[in-house]
Write a structure and sequence with these properties.
By secondary structure, the chain is an alpha/beta fold. It contains 13 helices and 16 strands. The longest helix is centred in the C-terminal third of the chain and has 23 residues.
């Protein structure tokens, strides 16, 4: 589809937005949302006819790209047949979505509890773990994001937690591994892994192992930096959990369904959690959907005991129809394999080449179509390009970088001192190279703020 300009329509959309829409995570009077007229594949466009290569996948969720015709058709067909039905009924499309998800999850995670999104998935996974163990504490990493609802925001490690943190939600934070900015004075991945696991062991020991219900980790940390764990770390956490009777929850809301070049990021590490949360890529966000994949042992806890949780729209037929169509399309079109190939052949090498040429690029990390550039003022000291949680003038260098990307037709995913390179899993080699070329230009803006 070719975008066409209709500025007057765009102005009307923006006026209505400003009058009535209350936006998330924003000071309402300081934002100026782009009015979007349409989208297709790896692109979206505004009412002025400007087209943007979506290197954000919106919120890292449009894994199969915008407006995939098979998924759109499935939603239309389901709407004509059965728009909605309560969660207590057995419905063909709900059962099929659960079956297709369970076929792809690691290990025996064969029961699926559906939610409307990732935060609700985390809420219910934590509830299941607490009920299963009879314990209350949950451990999560500082570098993490798990959602914005009550338990999920307390589990989150980044600053979005601060205004809502009750400090009484039974959550204990710890440091996960991140060699580039090591909290353990490590110099190798092996050291970082060993010391991070020791730190986790010590945290559990001082909290009391018998009080800990679960450890929740993003398999590959998403918004907090696309942090790929060092070899052996997740296996080490699994062993710690087994030794202390702690439920191991992997949050695959962002990393799942092809994003890392595998169906689930856990597949890279050979680790099976007790509970796995998902959303986003399960149907590319075409209709809100998330869920928890549940192990046989935890599912058995609720065979004769009611599970005290539910949602009016759990397993909504339109959402499940879009998931079925998404998963089938990903299989038929080898979309997961495409994400892996693009990461190996184009994005990984291309981003590492940018790092060689730009003094502002401190580190490149990622897998599949899930990458981050850690932008710095100084490569030797690793000083971030902007301070932690910077705003206003302090964040000017990152704001200028983002503006430069958009001016050239690339929509970036920027968080703190990082830009994440997260196009749809369907991105073509030509589109990936187009994005890399724009990043190359925009990074020159970031380079002007470096000191060495």
């Amino acid at each position: 589809m070719t975008p066409h300009a209709d500025p007057q329509a765009g102005k009307a959309v923006k006026a209505a937005d400003r009058a009535h829409v209350f936006h998330s995570w924003s000071a309402q009077g300081l934002i100026d949302p782009l009015a979007v007229a349409g989208a297709e594949g790896s692109y979206f466009w505004d009412y002025d006819g400007n087209r943007y290569l979506d290197f954000s996948s919106q919120l890292v969720n449009t894994n199969i790209g915008h407006q995939h015709p098979k998924v759109v058709a499935a939603i239309q067909e389901q709407a004509a047949r059965l728009c909605t039905i309560a969660p207590g009924f057995a419905v063909d499309v709900r059962s099929e979505a659960a079956r297709l998800i369970a076929e792809r999850t690691p290990g025996d995670l064969d029961k699926i509890f559906f939610t409307n999104g990732g935060a609700e998935a985390v809420e219910n996974a934590v509830r299941m773990a607490r009920l299963h163990t009879g314990r209350q504490k949950v451990l999560s990493a500082y570098r993490s994001y798990h959602g914005a609802t009550a338990a999920a925001i307390n589990l989150t490690g980044d600053p979005r937690r601060w205004p809502s943190d009750t400090a009484s939600a039974g959550v204990v934070h710890f440091w996960g591994p991140h060699l580039y900015r090591s909290n353990f004075h490590a110099t190798t991945e092996a050291e970082e892994c060993e010391r991070a696991l020791l730190h986790l062991e010590q945290t559990i020991a001082f909290e009391g192992p018998q009080t800990v219900a679960a450890i929740i980790l993003e398999t590959i940390v998403g918004t907090a930096g696309v942090l790929v764990p060092p070899p052996g770390y997740l296996a080490g956490v699994r062993e710690i959990c087994d030794r202390h009777g702690i439920v191991f929850i992997l949050d695959e809301v962002m990393a799942g369904f092809g994003r890392t070049g595998r169906w689930f990021a856990a597949d890279h590490f050979g680790v099976v959690p007790d509970l796995l949360t998902f959303a986003k890529g399960v149907n590319s966000g075409y209709v809100p959907l998330g869920g928890v994949a549940i192990s046989a042992e935890i599912a058995a806890t609720f065979d004769q005991r009611p599970y005290p949780g539910g949602l009016t729209y759990s397993g909504h037929p339109l959402a499940c129809a879009s998931a079925v169509a998404t998963l089938n399309a990903m299989e038929e079109e080898r979309i997961v394999e495409n994400a892996d190939r693009i990461g190996e052949r184009v994005l990984g090498p291309g981003l590492r080449e940018l790092a060689e040429h730009h003094p502002s690029v401190g580190e490149v990390r990622g897998l599949g179509v899930f990458w981050a550039l850690d932008l710095v003022r100084n490569k030797e000291t690793h000083e971030p390009l902007v301070p932690y949680n910077a705003g206003g003038e302090a964040n000017a260098p990152m704001a200028a970088f983002a503006t430069a990307c958009k001016a050239k037709g690339l929509w970036p995913f920027v968080n703190m001192n990082r830009t994440h390179v997260v196009p749809p899993c369907t991105v073509t080699e030509a589109e990936a190279k187009e994005g890399l070329a724009i990043l190359d230009e925009a990074l020159s803006v970031a380079d002007t703020h470096t000191t060495a």
